[in-house]
Each structure stands twice: as C-alpha cells, then as structure tokens.
Amino acid sequence: MGFLYSGGGERVVLEQTKRLRARGHKVRLFSPIIRWEKSFPQMLHSVNPERIVPPFPLPFPFRDASAMLASCVFPFRMREIADCDILLCQSQPSMWLGYRTNQMFGTPYVGYLHQLTTFIHKRPQVAGNWETKGDFLMLDGLLGVFCRGIAKQLDMMCHRAADALLFNSFWTRRQFEETYGVSGQVCYPAVQMPPHRVASGRQNMVVTASRHFPWKRIDLAFHVLKHANSSPNLVVVGERTSHTPFLVSIARELGLQERVKFPGFLSEAALHSIYGTARAYIHTSIQEPFGLSPLEAQSYGAPAIVWGDGGVRETVLDGETGFLANPYDVSDFGSKLDRIIADRQTHRSMSRSAQAWATEFGWDAHIDILEGVLDERRR
3-class SS at 365? Predict the structure, then answer.
C-alpha cells in the first residue's frame, strides 16, 4: 500500500527485493507512496523504490490516499511495469494493478498476501478504528462504506485471477479460503538472526514494539501489566502518532506512569539491544495476521507472550518459547508473564528454546519458496 512507516509488511517487501537481487535477479520495486525518512530509511534508500504515479507537488489533505487512488485509476507507468517476466503483488492496490496489467499486456502476477483488504473486511470492533490518520479514514469511507459491494467484487476478482498466491501465515490463508475461495502456499516472513551471541544479563523489563495505532491495542499491554504480580517495567517502542497521548493517559490512569516508557522510534541496533536485555516480549495486537516482532524478540532470547489467536500464534511454541494467552483475557496474560519473570529456570529454558525456534524463520528458506513460485509462473 505504500512506504508510510516501519512495519512488518514493509520490511518483508524490502528484504524480498534485496535478496532476490542478491541472487542475480533484476528486480524493480514500485509503490504509490514513498516516505523516505519514515519507513526503514537506510534500507529504503539502498533498495531505491520507484513511484507508480508522480508525487503531488504541494501538500494537501488526504495526499497519501489520493496517491493510492491515483495509482489504481491512472497508473502512468503501467506499460513500463508490464515489461517484465512476472509481477509480485503485495496485497492492495498491487493486486488490482497486477490484474489490470495481466488483462492488458498478459503479464503474469503472483500475490504475496499479508491480510484481507482491511478497508473492505473490517477489523473486529474491539480492535479500534482508523481515526489516527485522515487518509485511512477517507479510504475506509470510500471502500468500506459507499463502494463496499463493488470494491469487494473487484478485490475477489483480482485475487482469483492471480497465477499463484502466497500467504504470510496459515491463519491468513484460512481467511482467504473462507472469504474468497482461494488458496495457495504459506511462505512465512523471516527474521535476521543476531550477528553476535546474545548477552545473558536481563533487566526486570518487558518490551512491546508496534505502530501506535488503535487496532494494535497497545493499551491492553498496560492492563496486562496491572494484572501481573511481578511488577516489571514496560518499554513501548514505536514512532509517536496522534494515538500516543491516548496511550500515555491510559498508563497514567492505571497508575503505571513510572513503569511504562515511550522511547519513540528506535534504530534497529537500539531495538535489538532492548530485545537482548528484556525479560520477555508481549504482543497484544488483536487478530494479527502474523507479527514479526515476537519472532525478532525470540531470536534475541526474549520469550514472547501473544494471544492464542490470529496468525501471531504461529510465531510462538506454547510453553516452550513463550506462551499463548487466552484471547483477550488480560488476567491470563498477566499470570503467564509472571511465570516467565518470576521463575528463573523457566525463563532460562524458554530463552534458549526461543533462540533456536527463531532460526526456523530464516530468509534463505523464505526466498527459496518465493523464487521457486516466481520462476515456475514467469513468462
């Protein structure tokens, strides 16, 4: 959908591009929106994506949403994009562009799907809404309210017409099977293993790393902390948004202002340093399609606790590398956090197992699957 922030989906796209190029493929990366300093700046500049439509010269309301819509309606570079062996489309609007390019020029396209198109298929009510960004609100209104029926038919059509589909988790695949009757191969996102041995010293601290948007439900992490008897501190990593003050106010209302820290956006090195010193990682986003951060934390020896729901449950071995909490039961989540914090033997065992488990999600295996599918379907 665009390089707007540093999220798991954006990282997957950048890594795929970089690693396919390293294997000798010529890869061009196109996007409706590129915020060069917002989405993994160093990696973004090295990969060097290209815009599908020219940037708008002046700032105005809903600029990002307009760029996404313009990419669908007036894709100026479609003929240039079509001049390739195959397109790899990352959700919408890429799938629509893949479909149109295929119909006009015969270019085959493969979808790598992170989740159902959320403007059409609403997130659970408990997961919040799009209120933190006007562009999302505009698209949510256009596609999710006024034109939902048409948008759903077009969305289904371009997924069914794809030459192949890849999914980031079994849970995501099941969503598409039940909704659109399409299926394909699961190709898990991957994590980069630590370049050095992780130190054994751990602080009385847990960490969560996520975008500060309502549907990520970071606020539930505060309620978990309130139910935990072990009294750890919590570091909430992520770039500040208009939702951050709301999170700060909840922490204050719960009397946790001294135990919850908001360091903002951190460099990769700084984030990995926190993973390496935290006692545990907690992830409270609801119906997360996959979730890279719990795996990254485990690769640094931090056992992860996540809800036993969505694709994120596939990132943790329950009772071995962390815990799956009963969905949305903050008391159960808090008790499982206590077991990791209070029991040193449990933590030590889980920490070792977590590092070993994370090695199963390597980039070489991911690219092997991806490369094989693309090579099989190319023209």
Answer: helix
